[in-house]
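Homework-ish question, so no full write-ups if that breaks the rules, but can someone show me the predicted structure for this set?
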Amino acid sequence: FPLLILGITESFGAGIHALNTSQLTDGVINRSKRMMLDTLGVGLLGTRTAVFNKALKYSQLFTSRERSSVWGQSDIILPPHYAAFVNGIAVHSMDFDDTWHPATHPSGAVLPALLALAETLPSQPSGLDLLLAFNVGIEVQGRLMRFSKEAYNIPERFHPPSVVGVMGSAAASAKLLGLSPEQCIHALAIAASSAGAPLANAATQTKPLHIGNAARRGLEAARLAQIGLKGNPAILDLDRGLGVYYKDYSPSAMADSAVRAYKWILEDQDVAFKRIPAHLGMHWVVDAALAAREKLQNAVGKFDLSQIRHVTLRVPPSKYVNCPLPATEHQARHSFQFNACTALLDNKVTVASFGDAQIGRSALKELLGKVSLETPEDNLPSFDKMYCEVEIATHQGPSYTARCDTFYGHWRKPLTLKHLVDKFSVNASSVLCTEGVEGVIDVIGNIERVADCSILGSYLRMTSNQEHLDRMRIL
Amino acid sequence: MPHTPPSSRIPAIFKRPLKAIRPVWAARAMHKSAVEVLKQPVPEDTVTASFGKFISELKPQHLSPVVLHRSKRMVLDSIGVGLIGSTTDVFELALQHCQNMYAPGDTSSVYGHRGIRLSPILAAFVNGVATHSMDFDDTWHPATHPSGAVLPAVLALSDMMPANNKPSGLDFLLAFNVGIEIQGRLLRFSNEAHNIPKRFHPPSVVGTMGSAAACARLLSLDPIQSSHALAIAASLAGAPMANAATQSKPLHIGNASRLGLEAALLASRGLEASPLVLDAVAGVAGFSAFYEDYVPQPLQSPGNDSHMFLLEEQDIGFKRFPAHLGMHWVADAAASVHKILVGVGPGTVSPAQVEDILLRVPKSKYINRPFPESDHEARHSFQFNACTALLDGEVTVQSFTPAAMSRPDLHALLSRVRLEHPNDNPANFNRMYGEVQLTLVGGDTVKGRCNTFYGHWRNPLSNDSLRKKFRSNAEVVLPSEKVERLIEVVEDLDQLRDCRNLLSQLQ
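A: Not a homework solution, just the prediction itself:
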């Protein structure tokens, strides 16, 4: 019987346990703070969505002695697992949260779990503890995604946050709980049995639950490991462990965490922040459409829909974002066609573009009828390599073509701090009063100096009076 | 000259007036330069919708006498193993977790624990853990443990329903059978499912779906909500085989039960998910994500006719001792060797007599363990179960206690075992066999072979044997009057006007 090599999972258990605050570099601190801020903003905005409301109503069936906050709600508390669940759903509800390479939405699976957990701990963690745990959760996800080539492309089978997100949440929670190396191993093993949701639920109302569930079940795995539940201590080593989620699987040990200068993946590979609440691929096609529109406008003097004979989109092959006529907001966020046409019609794509009224506009539908998709061979389904091209063919004759290789917000062209904070402010102001908005910006901005991170929770509950009076969803 | 747009460039679907387009379903577009959008599938055409319709429209009169009989046996066995399972460490841990994390609920009962009630989701969880904690629960073909994923959820949900509107025994059985049937149908969508699993632990895949279906039925969800329940459940399904033979395995059933219930509750509140989750859509995996080969089939709604339940065609296997199903073949084979040896000798088998033990078994990594260290590992070890049966003539609940596991005689035998995987012994619960060949000191060999163990679906436990197993399990935690009443209540379950009589006996 072959001797089981525990090496890889064991190295992760050791790493999660041993990584400490002195190993956080300036680069990593800076990038992860941006991620935390952006995640809180999109999460707050997301608390006004239908899917969040359904999940909240459902979660209110449960009570517990431990109490954790629901973002953007001044007086609702939930058991920590369910707080992690609903806040995670809020983060992903509009597909507005960060994206990494290889592809996943790393922060939404981790931050809600950590904040919910932090509120239950007998002694409140410092901002630095929180930052460290957060980065452990991100790092573990990054490492796991590098175990397979499949992970580098736009997914087809399992939705990545449901695979690596729950593992990241377990790792981060285990870190914050101060679990032993062995317990950390088992947290990962238990979490693996909660991983894996099929891609078919992307572009539906259930997709946000993938992140919500990743957050809560990773937290749960850590809590179970804390009271002694055990799983397979070679879960990462085995094909029939985490390997079941991938067609090719080649795991490797976590780097030695005892070194002074630990090399975080986030340092080498930044995340992308979204300007539009839609699947990342949409950002390329929108930028290209806006540029093509501008070319047309410059040439002709004014832009007029009736000039357009046909629109050709050249995009990478990806089934679940090819939707010629979306009927729901979820489908619209996963439609090259819809996002291109909205950009052409309105000269912008914003949060408001995905409301039912907007989706149902006859002018938009008419334009959608003129769109066709092409998938050139050189356009690879990878967020690191893809491009989008938009060609507007006019009745007058000439065509106007523009191409986007790297949209603004992509890791190759990151949002400036000002624009990141602006995005947060706009999002958070829809729910929080000014004091809350500014408070969060202040706390996250200075998190490595914050002694007691419960202050963050207080700001996240500072809803505006308008919010109290007018609880209509904006979408 | 007026310019007419080449109509061949406009996808066919947009030539129809927009009103005719059904808004709910996404078109199945192809990745081609010349886009040719297929006609949108009519909802009733999809496999997913057919399942939703079936769940919603099945009625009690569709349950045949055979199905009623077999499913009642399953309910009884499942309760029994759940009751004894409520004494295990892993159950205790799961219960502690639920009580720590959540305030006491007063809704749903916990197997064998008088006075403890939890919220329905958590009760489904811990009772599911209990059911699978000792690997004592039923097994089907294609392989899964169907009842443990469904029964705890249906019980918990029944407890949740208002006192003046509890399901009747027949409603209860109908929901249970929907949960079993859906699992059976899903397992037939792939060839991979017919063999002993290697990737995903089947209860975590189909069990979650079965629980969602059963709960959708009990909640009387409409066809669309029922199909959403399945789709939501799919995003909660799937756990890797690596956690089998560990303490976490029972959580696969616990989670299947509770997450299926959760999916149904979310669907009842209007949460929507993929309307094509069971269908095979190239480039976007739904339920197909869990299988390498996947060919879904629609489910016919019974209408006024009867429905041929899979349970009628393919019976369940019940276990006689708490270990992985594969162990039952080698145990029976080893027991026959024991009988031969003891018949001629001094009444026990001594390691000193034994030179070599050869087991001819199918090839399956997770049940090949020469020296198991925990009870979970021992329940998944051909070697352990064969040697225990060689020594004792049988394998029982007691065989997995620390005392029994640490016996020097047992260790001596274990060190003499080797395995062979004959080509004609496939890793398939319908076709495998177990063979034990003992070589005695001195050269004689004694052989035993089991093709079909007693309890397998080809050689089902008699009603008497099933009740005996139930009593032996249930009496560990319940007084014997309750035990007997439970047997009666389940026997007459289809006649019960109110299933409270069942619910009140479980703790």
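Now go work out the reasoning yourself. Hint: Residues 65-85 of chain B form the longest helix (21 residues).
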